[in-house]
Design goal:
The complex is a heterodimer of chains A (346) and B (481).
Chain A: H1 3-27, H2 33-44, H3 48-74, H4 82-97, H5 106-132, H6 136-156, H7 190-207, H8 209-219, H9 221-226, H10 232-259, H11 270-280, H12 288-309, H13 313-338
Helix pairs in contact in A: 1-2, 1-13, 2-12, 3-7, 3-8, 3-10, 3-11, 3-12, 4-5, 4-6, 4-10, 4-11, 5-6, 5-10, 7-8, 8-10, 11-12, 11-13, 12-13
Chain B: E1 12-21, E2 24-34, E3 39-43, H1 50-58, E4 65-70, E5 73-74, H2 80-85, E6 88-91, H3 103-108, H4 117-131, H5 146-159, E7 164-168, H6 176-191, E8 195-200, H7 203-209, E9 212-217, E10 220-226, H8 232-239, E11 257-267, E12 273-283, E13 287-291, H9 298-305, E14 313-317, E15 322-325, H10 329-333, H11 340-346, H12 358-371, H13 388-399, E16 406-410, H14 418-433, E17 437-441, H15 445-451, E18 454-459, E19 462-467, H16 470-477
Parallel strand pairs in B: 3-8, 3-9, 6-7, 7-8, 13-17, 13-18, 15-16, 16-17
Antiparallel strand pairs in B: 1-2, 1-4, 4-5, 9-10, 11-12, 11-14, 18-19
Helix pairs in contact in B: 4-5, 11-12, 13-14
Classes of the chains: A mainly alpha (346), B alpha/beta (481).
Chain lengths: 346, 481
């Protein structure tokens, strides 16, 4: 397979681009290059607090979403709605988390609710595709907007905290929180969930009949149907719902592990960054944790540059956009290689 | 035969052509001399170098050594543009037309400058009149039959003033009558002074229509000369190192009925009924051939027999174990991006549960490679790396790995050379001998007759028994009976 080669190339290009951007600021008279680089370093990997409270914490939802997108993309389903599915997952987890105390399992039930919420949101797009042939690329994006508006309404209406001052919910309390792993740092138990989910997705695609069906349907729906007698609509439906469930789980993990409450901007675009995470990993869940960590580093580093070196946030997000675009271009080459031409003359 | 005048240089001449792709010598001192006003057949196995030689002629591939001359003038650096300007035109096996455009729009696609629809239409009409090729001009290509599309490709070449036409396997997709029409058109084109290079697998076709024949084997010319001096067996000897034995396996007496169709109707994907009230049976130890012209409804019938489509009405009883050998092996028969082992695992994976024992699958794949003589680096090699013949061996091997009750094979030898074709025929016969029922369709009626123990003809949705009488089959296929 050519995946690892593309993956390596991807990492190389990303590094190069980052350096290029840094060089841009070298040339700029108002910013001192070493400050900029130091800000990136201290914001992402260079300090224990940045790493354990920022970068690793940010990598968790990216890994969960990325693993799900690997499954969806492998099935040939282009789920662009991770963002919306994450939000609905966060809503469901918050709802359960704020409810009657359920004892020590409260957090588990909240996470299951989050996964169910994401799955249900993705199921809308899956059903639209199965019944009416609506392209999931379009429906999932549209559902992102609806989900965002729904959250905006909930945190100002039915779920708003009792004083009615802030557009957010109450905080969920301890049995409904994921434990923190280190004193003084924000790193929480969600990292185990993320690693386990990535390993499970890897095992699923590689070892199980259902995972093989996913790969076969993505590689050639007609051969899967005719030779494999695979129920193709069912597999694509399942893959989309499964990726929605993992996105919802990511939302649940954010609420129970990081924010403890629901508010409007709960996701800084995780659903979109995760697309790049999955593609950089070559759609192989085994590489997703590494890929997620890389993008988390980029994002926290960019935030650091904004905070400490005064690099405007516009530049920070432009940097990220360039990286995502580069990954997509590389990914396009990768996808072309896996999906061989439909006909090569004998 | 039209004779070239003295002093006339050949229409197309390739001499001393060498071409290597990496380690592989695709062409070694190969050549071709096409005389004015003649039809020249180029024969050879898959991978013998026919396509490469044609690509060199047309300027699509640069030879490592050798000379290409068109009408006597050598072109040292032939490109697609200069080849077309010199009067060469090629119709590829896989037609390259834009389906949503009309015929004149397709012809204009290759042009430059402004598109003047009326001029193109007039030009096309003139070429169509003078050449005798009739194609509807004002409907999109997707509504044309395959034969019409092929005629359009030829028109396209003629509209660009081609005087030497290279036709790559032109009859592979045509019904018998269409083949006859095309070949007689080819003869008349040559009679009017044009030259045709006909790349084909079919010996009979070459012998019946060509003036001269060139045979390639592993990139070398093993026969070149007038068709009058050749026979089927001498050509077969030139194509293959050893003669191909066409053994007839005794397939036994028809047994119990495994397929029972009663007043079965089948609709296509748009819901139009394409097969009406078909009633027939298929028994064990039978090879039932399906003969039909394009669009007669046999594709829908095959899909229903392959348990890929439910009949719209009527009762169709099918056995438990049904396997399909699809017509398009690249799209439907294999997953080219997956390994041989994964393609073996693909069979019937829709009903599998739990884990896949990949160790065992790889063992099975290795056993199949052995048993069916598939040439592959290993069972881990990608299916896309196999040659066409070996890909089809893999499809058939995976289909027949387990005992089956019914095999539904649609054009199972399309694009295969004689050796691979013989292999597929052998496997189908052996499956029938061991008690399976076989239903096979081929666009080539001769192949249907060669294989079948009984023939069903589909015409305009009507299925009728035709026995093994070639004339009766022919008239039924055209709806004349």
């Amino acid at each position: 397979m050519t995946v690892s080669r593309w993956g390596l190339l991807g990492v190389a290009v990303l590094a190069l681009l980052s350096v290029l951007f840094a060089a841009l600021w070298w040339l700029s008279p108002t910013h001192d290059a070493s400050t900029v680089v130091a800000a990136f370093w201290h914001g992402s990997l260079g300090t224990t607090s940045a790493f354990f409270s920022g970068t690793l914490v940010r990598a968790i939802p990216l890994a969960l979403l990325g693993a799900g997108l690997c499954v969806a993309f492998r099935a040939g389903v282009f789920n662009i709605g991770g963002e919306g599915q994450l939000m609905i997952g966060a809503v469901a987890a918050t709802f359960v988390g704020l409810g009657h105390s359920l004892g020590p399992l409260h957090v588990v039930i909240a996470l299951v609710a989050g996964a169910a919420g994401g799955a249900a949101w993705a199921a809308i797009a899956a059903e639209l595709r199965r019944r009416f042939g609506v392209l999931e690329v379009i429906s999932t994006i549209m559902l992102n907007f609806i989900a965002a508006s729904l959250v905006a309404y909930l945190v100002r209406g039915p779920l708003q905290e009792p004083t009615g001052v802030y557009p957010q919910t109450e905080l969920v309390e301890v049995p409904a929180r994921l434990v923190r792993l280190l004193p003084d740092f924000r790193l929480h138990a969600g990292i185990f969930i993320a690693v386990i989910v990535c390993a499970a997705a890897w095992w699923f695609l590689r070892e199980t009949a259902a995972g093989f069906r996913v790969r076969a349907v993505g590689a050639s729906p007609s051969a899967a149907a005719i030779i494999g007698r695979v129920d193709v609509p069912r597999v694509t439906f399942g893959a989309l719902v499964a990726s929605g469930a993992l996105a919802g789980l990511a939302g649940g993990v954010e609420v129970t592990g990081v924010t403890y409450a629901l508010y409007e901007n709960i996701s800084p675009g995780y659903g979109f960054s995760a697309i790049a995470v999955a593609i950089l990993a070559g759609l192989r869940p085994a590489f997703v944790p590494l890929s997620a960590l890389l993008f988390a580093t980029l994002e926290t580093g960019a935030l650091g540059m904004q905070r400490d070196a005064g690099i405007p946030s516009v530049v920070a997000s432009a940097l990220e956009a360039v990286v995502i675009l580069a990954t997509l271009v590389i990914g396009a080459g990768f996808l072309r290689r896996t999906a061989l031409p439909a006909s090569t003359a004998p | 035969m039209t004779t070239a005048g003295p002093g006339d240089s050949p229409a197309l001449e390739l001499r001393g052509i060498h071409k290597r792709f990496g380690e592989v010598a695709a062409l070694t001192d190969a050549g071709l001399v096409v005389r004015h006003g003649t039809v020249h057949a180029v024969l050879g196995e898959n991978g013998a170098g026919k396509s490469t030689l044609m690509r060199v002629a047309i300027g699509l591939a640069a030879p490592d050594a050798g000379i290409v001359s068109v009408f006597g003038s050598a072109t040292p650096r032939l490109s697609v543009r200069t080849a077309s300007r010199a009067g060469l035109g090629m119709v590829h096996q896989h037609l390259s037309l834009a389906e949503s455009l009309t015929a004149p729009e397709n012809v204009a696609l290759g042009g430059a400058g402004l598109y003047r629809s009326r001029q193109v239409v007039e030009r096309l009409r003139a070429v169509a009149d003078s050449s005798g090729l009739d194609v509807p001009l004002n409907i999109p290509v997707r509504e044309l039959t395959l034969a019409q599309r092929q005629r359009l490709e030829i028109l396209k070449a003629l509209a660009a003033d081609a005087r030497v036409l290279i036709l790559d396997e032109p009859t592979a997709v045509l019904a018998p009558t269409e083949v006859r029409d095309l070949l007689s058109w080819v003869r008349s084109f040559a009679a009017r002074g044009g030259s045709v290079v006909l790349v084909t697998h079919k010996l009979r076709e070459a012998l019946s229509v060509a003036d001269d024949i060139t045979v390639l084997r592993r990139g070398r010319v093993t026969f070149a000369g007038p068709a009058t001096g050749a026979t089927e067996s001498s050509l077969a000897g030139a194509i293959f190192p050893g003669a191909v034995a066409t053994s007839a396996v005794a397939i036994g007496v028809p047994g119990e009925e495994v397929v029972v169709a009663e007043r079965v109707s089948v609709a296509d994907d748009r819901g139009t009924v394409r097969v009406r009230d078909a009633s027939f049976v298929v028994r064990r130890h039978e090879i039932v051939g399906i003969a039909a012209v394009d669009g007669a409804g046999h594709h829908e019938l095959m899909a229903a027999l392959g348990a890929l489509k439910r009949p719209a009405s009527g009762e169709l009883r099918l056995p438990q174990r049904v396997v399909v050998v699809p017509a398009d092996r690249h799209r439907d028969g294999l997953i080219l991006s997956m390994s041989l082992a994964e393609n073996v695992a693909l069979r019937g994976v829709g009903a599998a549960r739990g884990r896949i024992a990949w160790g065992r699958v790889r063992e099975r794949a290795r056993a199949l490679i052995q048993r069916f003589g598939i040439v592959a680096a290993s069972e881990q090699a990608g299916a896309g790396t196999l040659s066409g013949g070996n890909q089809q061996r893999l499809v058939v091997a995976a289909a027949l790995e387990q005992p089956v009750d019914l095999i539904v094979a649609d054009n199972p030898t399309r694009g295969l050379d004689l050796r691979a074709t013989a292999f597929v025929h052998e496997q189908l016969r052996e499956a029938a001998a061991s008690g399976a029922a076989v239903v096979v369709h081929s666009s080539d009626v001769d192949e249907v007759l060669e294989l079948a123990t009984r023939v069903l003809v589909v015409f305009h949705g009507t299925v009728s028994e035709a026995g093994l009488d070639r004339d009766r089959i022919g008239t039924l296929m055209l709806g004349a009976a």
